[in-house]
Each structure stands twice: as C-alpha cells, then as structure tokens.
Amino acid sequence: MKKKSLFLAAAVLLLAACSSNPKKKVAASGAAGGLSGEVQISGAFALYPMAVRWVEEFKKLHPDVRFDVSGGGAGKGMTDVLAGVVDIGMVSRELYPEEVAKGALGFATVKDAVIPTINVANPDLEALLRIGLKRDVAKQLWDEKIKTWGEALGTGSKTPVHVFTRSDACGAAETFAAWLGVKQENLKATAVFGDPGLADAVRKDRVGIGYNNISYAYDQSSKKPFEGLAIIPLDVNGNGQVDPEERFYETSEALIAAINDGKYPSPPARDLYLVTNGKPTKPEVIAFLKYVLAEGQQYAGETGYIGLSKEKLESEINKVEP
User: Fold this and answer.
1) Residue 236 contacts by C-beta under 8 Å, 6 or more apart in sequence?
2) What are the structural domains, with CATH classification, of the chain?
3) Would the pTM count as exceeding 0.70?
C-alpha cells in the first residue's frame, strides 16, 4: 500500500511537470495568448535592413503575425502612417513639429550615420583618403560650385567631379544636408532615387561622389565597403588632413565604435525612428515595438547599426504603453 502511494505521488509530480513544460515553451515561442494579425511597415531605406531582421526574429516568437515591409524613403513612411495606409512608418530623421501635431508618435530604435562615398577607382583616391572631406568643401560640392577634384582637394588635379544626391524625400539627404547647415532641397546634384540607387550611381561613375547610410555603404558580411565603393574620411577638425584619430572607416565595426565614442559628428549621425499615428492600439503592433526596444536590440550591431542606451530604451518603451 505504501509503495502504491509513493508511485501515485511520483506520477502526480511527473504529470504536473509534463503539463507545465509545454506552457513554458508556448510562452517562449510567443504563441501563448494567440497573438496574430498583420503589421504593415513602410519608409526609410536607412532602417529597412534592420526592420527586416527584427521581423524575421519576431516571427520566430509569433509565427501567426503577418508582416509587410517596404522601403520608399522616410517621407513615404511618414505620409503612409499619417494617412493610415500602414501601421508603422520608418523615419530616418527627427520628426517635424507639424508631423507631431498631426499625431505622429516617434520611437527612437537604433542609431545610424550618413557617410560620403566615392568610386574606388577614383584617380585622386589616395589624396582623398589623406586629406579627407571638410564640411565647407562638401557644402560647395553639393552647391555645384566645385567642378574638379583638384578644387576640392587643393591640388592641381583636373579630374572632373560628378556629384549625386537623393531624388526622394528621405532622412539620409535631410541629415546630410543638416550637417552642411542647409535643407535637402538645397542640395544641387544629379538626383537618384533611393539608398541602393545612389550607391549604384557612384559605383558606376569613376569620378562620382554621393552619400549613403552605413548599411548601404558596407557589406554586413565582410564589414568592408561594398565592391566599387570607398568611404571619404571627414576632416572633422578642418586642419587639412585626416589625423590618426579620424581614421575609422576601414570596417563598419570601426565606424560604429567611432560614432559611439562621439568621434563622428551628429549630424550626419542620427537616431532612426519607428513612427505610429498616435499611441498604438493593435496588440501585434504594441508587441512588435516592445520587442524592438528590448530583445531586438541584440541584433543592432551585427546588422550594422548602433543600439541605444538602457536609459533611452526605457524612455521609449514607456511611450508604447497605453
């Protein structure tokens, strides 16, 4: 009888253990509570690769939530979210007061930077890497006042310079323009649509110069600039040369570390935002935003972005709560 009681007790304990473990697994997988629905996201090319990674990882936890993610530029993302076309807009610049007045609520998610890019076959590449790009020279380049690389570098080079900018309303152009002290519409150059398009235009033009977000200038597998592209170092202190402390462009990892240390100016470094029209109410949208601002931060570095500080993340999470 005693043996039978012990057996029954053991069986009860085993049954309890077996019934509790699946619940834990379901909760960990995100299927608990039956989270489902659809989340539509559009906007900044700058944030697109990061958003895709977040979606991939989030769906491993919540497989019944469907996503539609598309680029198109920060302007499109803001227009779409305020019009109710999408649930979340990707915006790679600060929100304008008039957008906030219309209901735009921005959540800073990661940090990125816009960097000047040139063709790796540029005949003046060696001088460019040694002298770098001063802010006032960049301003003249995008004002079409400089016609040769010799003028830009202060050398005798007669090599012509072809300047490119973005044709779409975007955070990258707005941020780069802010570094120059102007607006995107003040940038005079051959206009190309999208981050990928601008990078491709520079790759195809031996004397071209443009600007790109980190994830479109660097291959995230090798951490090196994409084939055909080179990065022009910024002469931040304006002394006419790239000092050792200003040399951090060889890999995206070195550049990200420099941005974290404040060695790369802001702008053109800046926060990237996910934007909703007012406080989100859809459970799947709320869950996704909370994931991005918590567990999702672990993927920032390996995707070519910079995670935010714990204090800033806590502040952003508080904005998600109803």
Assistant:
1) 246, 263, 264, 265
2) 36-110+270-320 (3.40.190.10), 113-260 (3.40.190.10)
3) yes
